[in-house]
Design brief:
This protein has about 210 residues and is of the alpha/beta class. The protein contains ten helices and eight strands. About 50% of the residues lie in helices and about 10% in strands. The chain has two domains: about 130 residues, HAD superfamily/HAD-like (Rossmann fold, 3-Layer(aba) Sandwich); about 60 residues, Putative phosphatase, domain 2 (DNA polymerase, domain 1, Orthogonal Bundle). The radius of gyration is 17 Å and the shape is globular. The strands form two sheets. A six-stranded parallel β-sheet has the order 5-4-1-6-7-8.
């Protein structure tokens, strides 16, 4: 197809397994504040902005303080509990080998994104933080991204809205059916399958 342009990637549960650190940080926030937080509910919504998740559990005037508590614990736990997901390094390398930029676009706060990337040994060509849903679409459109890779229905909707190819990976809290229903053109079991899809979709490697 010969298309060119950057490829966007979500971070949590697309490139990195941050679930243990996220859930442990919410558990610590619950313990410290005395507010019950249903971790299963948090898990079902992984990918939203922290403040939006905390709004399910705290009144508006307590969300900022709860976010501070959460981040304090997350920064302590991220290095110990964050792992890179299979195929993540190879996916970024494949995009770069085609002469394109691998950009991470995430709802994560920059304070939390940095330690998570370091723990996973990942370095994006550009990083956009604190964006979710239509905000991701705006970034993708501005970058003229050819594809966005993510693990949630809002990720797929953002790609569609931006006119980018929506590539789902079923490594998060949502099924392949969920991702396809939100507009995914293709759903991969993991990023291990990304290089072959990318080479085929963009015809960037000669006859391969």
């Amino acid at each position: 197809m010969g298309e060119s342009g950057p490829v966007g990637f979500d971070l949590d549960m697309t490139l990195i397994n941050s679930r243990p650190a996220i859930l442990a940080s919410f558990a610590e926030t619950s313990r410290e504040t005395g507010i019950a937080i249903d971790l299963d509910g948090v898990d079902r919504r992984l990918g939203v902005k922290l403040d939006d998740e905390l709004a399910f559990w705290f009144p508006p005037d307590r969300v900022a303080a709860a976010a501070g508590i959460y981040r304090r614990h997350y920064l302590r736990l991220a290095d110990q509990m964050t792992t890179v997901l299979p195929g993540a390094h190879e996916a970024l390398a494949t995009v770069r080998a085609a002469g394109q930029r691998a950009v991470i676009i995430t709802a994560k706060h920059p304070v939390s994104a940095g330690p998570s990337l370091r723990a996973a040994g990942l370095t994006p060509d550009e990083l956009f933080t604190l964006v979710h849903g239509p905000e991701k679409a705006a970034v993708l459109r501005r970058l003229k991204a050819v594809a966005y890779v993510g693990d949630t229905p809002p990720d797929m909707a953002a790609a569609v809205q931006a006119g980018a190819r929506a590539v789902g990976v079923a490594t998060g809290s949502f099924t392949a059916r969920d991702l396809a229903g939100a507009g995914a053109e293709v759903v991969l079991d993991s990023l291990a399958a990304f290089p072959a899809w990318f080479r085929s979709a963009y015809s960037l490697f000669g006859d391969s």
